[in-house]
Amino acid sequence: MTNSSDWFRIASATECPPGTSIERVVEGRVVALANVAGAWHAIDGLCPHQGGPLGTGRLCGAVLTCPWHGWQFDVTTGRHQISATVRQAVHEVEERAGEVFVRFPVPGPEACRA
Ligand code: FES
Fold it and tell me: Please, what CATH class does the domain formed by 18-91 belong to?
């Protein structure tokens, strides 16, 4: 799924219509990809509560709700809606010709396998 040096294809734009989110594993990372009224956002997809699949949760505006116990995150910032100390990693996202790509802020798990 690689494209250029550090951008990775995550999905086709049609797989995640406005107002929805999806879960994908990219380069060993679980990512929650969200389409907020046509704007792409991607955060760490593992809920910090008990590892729930955030990307399969309900998106309402920019707030993504974990399907397991209801923790809520702003996909534009990664911040938990109640606790300011809980924050998901936010990944860069861009769409090119109908395909969506993500770029991670730090090296992925593969960097530890040398
Ligand atoms: S695992 Fe996400 S709220 Fe519990």
Answer: mainly beta
Give the Cα separation of 96 and 35 in Å (integer). Answer: 15
Residue 107 CB partners (closer than 8 Å, separation 6+): none
d(CA 17, CA 35): 6
The Cα 90–Cα 65 span in angstroms is: 16
Ligand 1 site, CB within 6 A: 47, 49-52, 66, 68-71
Q: Which of 65, 69, 80, 81 to mutate to test the pocket of ligand 1 (most atoms within 8 A of CB)?
A: 69
Specify the pTM: 0.89
Q: Give residue limits of the domains in the chain.
A: 18-91
The CA 51 to ligand 1 mean position distance, Å, reads: 6
Residue 54 has pLDDT above 90, yes or no: yes
